[in-house]
Specification:
Blueprint: E1 13-18, E2 21-26, E3 32-33, E4 37-47, E5 50-56, E6 65-66, E7 69-71, H1 78-90, E8 93-105, E9 110-122, E10 132-138, H2 140-143, H3 150-161, E11 168-169, H4 171-174, E12 183-184
Parallel strand pairs: 4-9
Antiparallel strand pairs: 1-2, 2-3, 4-5, 4-7, 5-6, 5-10, 8-9, 11-12
């Protein structure tokens, strides 16, 4: 989709070269449209030697089993996004343990997907009935007979075979008081 009008002031945009890349710039206030981006998150919640999976009721991937997840909201801390998405889709309360994987899809809308391993806190899996129509904890043996999305298979492989803790929240750096959250190995 072409950006023709400034989101800050409503005036027209024109193409200009900035840092060697053609970008849309407002002819009035100079606001630069840097591109279209989305940030997705996904959860790998393990409980009693089983993984939490949901069956998609919408595209993309209708009918496929995946890990719960979704998109970050403006001004929402990313660790709160994944907690919210797990609860909304499954009714399960979980907390962030670490970041275990990252996927980069540079496309017309550049998507970055961050997968978190999470600790189960409480709840029984219950699908939201909108985005997902089934939810449950499944053993690795059980998922062999399920139509699990290939990306979810890859995430499980990463989570189960990782030799380090992954990226965890750096409590010292995060407690600086400015709202930023830092992750480190």
């Amino acid at each position: 989709m072409a950006v023709n009008f400034c989101v800050s002031c409503g005036h027209s945009m024109e193409a200009r070269a900035i840092d060697g890349v053609e970008r849309k710039v407002c002819t009035s206030c100079g606001n630069v449209h840097w591109g279209n981006y989305s940030i997705g998150v996904g959860a790998l919640v393990f409980y009693d030697q089983k993984i939490l999976l949901v069956r998609r009721a919408q595209e993309p991937g209708t009918g496929k089993w995946t890990n719960p997840g979704g998109y970050i909201e403006q001004l929402e801390p990313i660790e709160q996004t994944v907690i919210r998405e797990v609860f909304e889709e499954t009714g399960i309360r979980a907390q962030v343990k670490s970041i275990v994987a990252l996927r980069d899809q540079p496309r017309s809308i550049h998507n970055v997907y961050i997968a978190f391993e999470m600790d189960y806190i409480e709840g029984e899996p219950k699908p939201d009935g909108v985005e997902v129509d089934q939810a449950g904890f499944f053993s690795l043996e059980e998922i062999q007979d399920m139509e699990v999305a290939s990306f979810t298979h890859w995430l499980l492989d990463v989570a189960l075979h990782v030799k380090k803790e992954g990226l965890t929240i750096d409590q010292k750096a995060t407690s600086q008081g400015n709202g930023d959250v830092y992750f480190r190995m």
